[in-house]
Amino acid sequence: MTSTKKVLIEVTNLTKSFIDGPVATHVLKGVDMTVYEGEFVAIMGRSGAGKSTFLYQVSLLDNPTGGSIKINGHNVDNFSNEEKTRFRLTELGYVFQDYSLLPELTACENIMIPLLMQGLSRKTARDRAIKALASVNLDHRENNLPSELSGGEQQRVSIARAITHKPRILFADEPTANLDSFSSNLVMDIFKKLNKEDGLTIVMVTHEEEFGKMADRIVKLADGMVV
Amino acid sequence: MFRIISNTISVGFFLAIRQIARTSKWTTVLIVFIMMLTFFNLVATSGFLVGIVEGASRSFREQWTGDLFITNRNEKNYIERTNDIISLLSSFPQIQSYSPRITAGASIEANWWQKRTEEDANIVSNQIAGIIPSVEDQTTGLSKAIVEGEWLKDDDARGIVLGSGYLAKYSRVADLVSLLRDVGPGTVVRVTVSGKSPVVTNPGPDAVPPETTTNSVAVSQDFIVRGIIDSKVQFVSSRAYILDSELKKMIGKSDGDVSEIAIVMKDGIDPYVVKTPLINNGFSKYAQINTSSEGSPEFLVNIKLFFSIIGTILGSVSVVVALITIFIIIYINALTRRRQIGIMKGIGVTNFAIEFSYICQAVFYVLIGSGIALVIIFAGLKPYLDANPIDTPFATIVLVAEPASVATKFLLVMLISTLAGYLPARLIVKRNTLNAILGRN
């Protein structure tokens, strides 16, 4: 990746410690990283290396202990919780390891939620959600509840929900960990397509070498530091 | 700003509808049932308490005072200028009926011819009322309270109706007080009242005309018991009733003054329509003029106040119980959905949208539960109890559920449900987003 591209994420000396009584566990020990616009970055490392913790800090789901994060020029360190929520709604998309769909909403309704939150009408949100489902080949499952879908289908719905509001960055935490190889390949194909065809910036945590290699760049973490 | 609020409310409502629709039906039924019982408790408990007093007040009004009750002033034995008052009453088309009564203390004795010693005496002292039977019945419907025999007829100069309070067989404390024994319809009783005999004083030759005063004498007359009257209103059961003409003769009263006048207004007419002109015409100098509630005996007023306080306390407890119930329901609901709340926050749903969805759910449960309770109360229980009041020795109890009062309680419960829906949701929502998503404490 060339350095002429726009810097989208700039992480400087990021630390995260968990304190349990007198015991402090330092999970991230001063991570520096830059992600450019349109880049597909895989974060890899052994179990306990701090991959997911790093992703949670960068994606504003958690509050780091120290360091600085800039996203698209915004210094997000001083964002209030409400500002972070709004920022996540407009700028970021998430794909979790366990799909994290809302069980009482259908596939279509799960996708509609961020769109409705952005102020779209129900009809428009529904139309967009159906299109997003079609993009992951699940338009025939729009009225199914998550419990009626397979793991791979749920993860594709989760991807559709993550991209339907056109975020600037897609964060994925072990998106293939709970899937069989067929579904995993399907998910990764979607990611590749989103990155290459739509120019979506993707930051993905994975421990699977095979999928890591599909990214533009691999950042390896070990013991809370980039190696 | 308006757009953000609008989006928040729209999403909150969207989430609430789906959570309610897709949660377990049995859970919904259970929660609605609890809410129904809570609201029912709030309305019915105080409604029955007030109903006890209301039942007593209603009986008191219907069988004793009417809507307006005119009595003698405390320092007088009779209502002065009764004829003028009655003349004015006759001019009011809003009055349905009124019944003048003249009262006196009396002793009533049965089986006196069998008495050998004073211990054998079958005698009781109480109050006797002289009435026009048809007019009294039209005003207070006392004939409906006859439990033995029949009501008096207007020309029945020898007839008497005894209140059950005179008779041992109707008393629970007959062994403690002296009451009439073996008396029923057809029994001859001797009524003795304090009458008056003219006495000429200062009969000297210079006294022109001679001064005439009266002396009290005991006047007795025999009557045949026509019926026994029994009422929840103790005053009614503690009297004997004969024709007013007979009582006037016995007590030697020839003017038109009476002791009390019970006035019943036509349906929906405020008794003040009559009371105010009576006062404006100066009749309050000659009589006490009170509405039924003003004329209620002190014990009834005190009981009313007592039950009102109890009702308020129980109502407050019910409100707190409702608050806690809704709080717990919503808290458990939110707690079990903690992870979903985290996910929603993660994908950009604002805290208030999530909290609003729980407020909507609380309001929904309360609305449906209270709605069912209202239907049960107003379409079932209240009409039934109005037609079939609960009979107690004290009063016939009805369920008092005034629409305005119930509406106030309903609004109060809705307000509480909003608060009780918001607070637990707030407690869960404000927790760390990532911890919620990962299910960490």
Could you characterize the architecture of this molecule?
The complex is a heterodimer of chains A (227) and B (441). By secondary structure, chain A is an alpha/beta fold. Helix content of chain A is 35%, strand content 28%. Chain A has helices at 51-58, 81-91, 107-117, 122-135, 151-163, 181-198, 209-212, and strands spanning 7-20, 23-36, 40-44, 66-71, 74-75, 92-95, 169-173, 201-205, 217-222, 225-226. In chain A, helix 3 runs parallel beside helix 5 (151-163). Chain B folds into 2 domains: 2-60 and 301-438, no CATH class; 69-291, no CATH class. Chain B is elongated, with a radius of gyration of 33 Å. The interface between A and B is medium-sized, with 32 and 28 residues.
List the helices and strands and how they pair.
The complex is a heterodimer of chains A (227) and B (441).
Chain A lengths: L6 E14 L2 E14 L3 E5 L6 H8 L7 E6 L2 E2 L5 H11 E4 L11 H11 L4 H14 L15 H13 L5 E5 L7 H18 L2 E5 L3 H4 L4 E6 L2 E2 L1
Parallel strand pairs in A: 3-8, 3-9, 6-7, 7-8
Antiparallel strand pairs in A: 1-2, 1-4, 4-5, 9-10
Chain B lengths: L1 H21 L2 H41 L2 E5 L9 H9 L4 E16 L11 E10 L1 H8 L5 E4 L9 E5 L24 E14 L9 E19 L4 H4 L1 E5 H8 L8 E6 L6 H9 L6 E5 L6 H39 L1 H9 L4 H37 L2 E2 L4 E2 L5 H27 L3 H6 L3
Parallel strand pairs in B: 3-8, 5-7
Antiparallel strand pairs in B: 1-9, 1-10, 2-3, 2-6, 2-9, 4-7, 5-8, 6-7, 11-12
